[in-house]
Amino acid sequence: MSACQFLYAIPLLIHLVLGCPKASTRYGELEGFTYPMKNGKEAQVFLGIPYASPPIDDARFEAPMPMRPWEGTRQAKQFGASCFPLRKDALSRQLQYSEACLYLNVMAPARKKSGESSYPVLVYIHDGGFESGSASSFGYKRFCDNLVSEGIVVVSINYRVGFLGFWTTGDHALPGNAGLLDQTQALTYVNENIEAFGGDPLRVTILGHGSGAASATALSLSPYANYLFQQTISISGSIFSQLAQSETTIEDSLKLAETVGCRNERSKITRDCMKKKNIVELMNAVNEVEAAHPRRNGVKLRPVFDNNFLTPPLEQLMSRAPHITSIVGLTNAASGVLPKPIPSSKMSKFSADDLTDYIKKEVATESDFGAAAEDFQHKLIEFFVRRDAPQHADSDFYLARLLEVMNDLRFNVPLLYEIEMKREYKWSTYFFVKEYDHQINQNILQSIKGAHHADEYVYLFGPPEVAGNIDFADDDITYQRVLLNSLIQFIKTGNPSHENLVWESIDDKHRSRYLNFSPKPHMVEKYKPENVYFWTQVVPTEIRERIRTGKRLDTKDSYSHIHTEL
């Protein structure tokens, strides 16, 4: 029998709790429960811990405020509500939603005896493109079995996303970035309270994937947050990417306000009106804006330069920030979602002409690149359509090339830029590329082999709870062991090498040296040298800036900039 067990009597539904773990935090006492891990030990689990006051009513959109203390013992045995996503179609029947959603969860080994060193801490920031996601999606069991069992305290956090997290007036009335400020408040809670769970506040690592990885970089750069942790693990995401920044955030924010009848010349009036609208009205407004202003990527509410939490340029922030040791990772076929999906009827017949047409209409558009679009299209076609193309290339070849160009645009270019900046400013950085493929991939380009965006989730945390179980083959088990051992060593020591693997960091002589993560991992000296040369030497600087930041090139002026450089 577990030390903390629930015995239910039906129909009275009376339960008896035996020896549940407790934690005394600055805000009050918590009571959690134990989970029997696969190694025979018990984890102590505390769910639904509030780390800030509810951001409701007049506090909507605003920076989070500290939680008020409570009296007595608070039950921490179920997940708190998830934060509302940007769109209705992202709502999950398996989750409960509320604006009062600023909760975190702590999964910890049994408390050490007094005088013994505390456990290192891992803070997990979920993905979702800053539009959706929840700390409860992966439950707590895999965190316990894979990480807590190895002597690590794991913390997963909710933070506001979509319009609640990133709506802004674009000025001092409401600067934006509430979601990033939520993350900072969660880290502050960890810093102040993690010792109550056996964790060491001076040994904190952030792990993020996608927008969670971009968040980890943003937190590393901001002086409001970068003193709260020591290390980061960023996978398939960067704050230097247009997926993490959008020049249309302010524009889209004001369009939403206009749609619900709130837009006013005075920003404070706009803000106060938006605070009174209900969630359904705001979600409907997103659909209306996207229908009235059709744009390839729809409404985008992202982190912005608010001249407070984030100030431009990011490179200057990095030059001033403390050196934070990091692991940065990519998958070799990450771009599983294209700007415009390819009809299944075209998949088996996808040709050079189809790829050329896709590049012109969806990748290098005039609306994004102005007068430079035609020149950029030509360069993309030469490199991704015609380069080394077999005389009778089939659809698989051109689908793979489409995936390659989208992977470069969305992930590789910005992330390699981040790595280069970290090298320049002497941040200790370990780079990996996951090339190992698995049957779990459900990419729309089914015929293309490779590791896809979010593959790591299954190996680190298991599949989302709503997805059921996935069977691992022998190579999957080996790969998972290698991945976990490396990350566990990094969390504990700051170096991912272990007895079966030497993982070398990048340096001035090995600027893109990386670990090829697979069941048989090995170091590789250069990452995709042909592609790196194309993006750094063939593609003009102005275009690269647009790719990284999402900033559109002015139709009138961009052509002269491009050709002056050439």
Automatic annotation (TrEMBL):
Signal peptide: 1-19
Pfam families associated with the record: COesterase (PF00135)
Keywords of this entry: Signal
Record-linked InterPro entries: AB_hydrolase_fold (IPR029058), CarbesteraseB (IPR002018), Neuroligin/BSAL (IPR051093)
Ion transport as UniProt keyword: no
The keyword Signal is assigned to this record: yes
Gene3D superfamilies linked to this entry: alpha/beta hydrolase (3.40.50.1820)
Family per similarity comment: Belongs to the type-B carboxylesterase/lipase family.
PANTHER family linked: NEUROLIGIN (PTHR43903)
Record's protein name: Gut esterase 1
